[in-house]
């Protein structure tokens, strides 16, 4: 899968680094999301837990040909979203 990232020109790195997320963590979530749903404008949201135990939200746009994705942002989830995700995952035995 071809993964491209929104580039933060000020930092000179992908935008995800502003949130303390690495490319490896994004790939972990995309390869095995706990939850994935559509958003607006063809974007999607994937929620999941990394092998290191962090819970992340990844917002991405799939390529039209289905061969790649463009990562808009990713960040660690907390609060109500984390509670809801854990409850959802527990009910599904994940």
Protein model, in words:
With 94 residues, this protein is an alpha+beta fold. The protein has one domain (2-91). Helix content is 23%, strand content 37%. It is built from two helices and seven strands. Strands 1-7-6-5-4 form a five-stranded mixed β-sheet. It has a two-stranded antiparallel sheet with strand order 2-3. It is globular, with a radius of gyration of 13 Å. The mean pLDDT is 94.
Taken in chain order, the helices and strands follow as EEEHEEEEH
Dominant shape: globular
- For the secondary structure, the number of strands is 7
Helix coverage percent of residues?
Answer: 10-25%
Count of discrete domains: 1
Gyration radius, to the nearest Å? 13 Å
Class by alpha and beta content: alpha+beta
The largest sheet is:
5 strands, mixed
Which percent band covers the strand fraction?
A: 35-45%
Short characterization:
The protein is α+β, with helices and mostly antiparallel strands and 94 residues long.
Describe the structure using short key phrases:
alpha+beta, 5-stranded mixed sheet, 2 helices, globular, 94 residues
């Amino acid at each position: 899968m071809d993964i491209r990232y929104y580039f933060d020109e000020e930092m000179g790195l992908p935008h995800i680094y502003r949130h303390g997320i690495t490319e490896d963590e994004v790939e972990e979530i995309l390869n095995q999301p706990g939850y994935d749903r559509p958003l607006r404008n063809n974007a999607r949201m994937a929620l999941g837990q990394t092998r290191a135990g962090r819970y992340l939200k990844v917002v991405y746009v799939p390529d039209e040909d289905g061969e790649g994705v463009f990562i808009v942002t990713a960040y660690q989830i907390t609060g109500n979203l984390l509670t809801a995700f854990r409850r959802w995952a527990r009910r599904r035995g994940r």
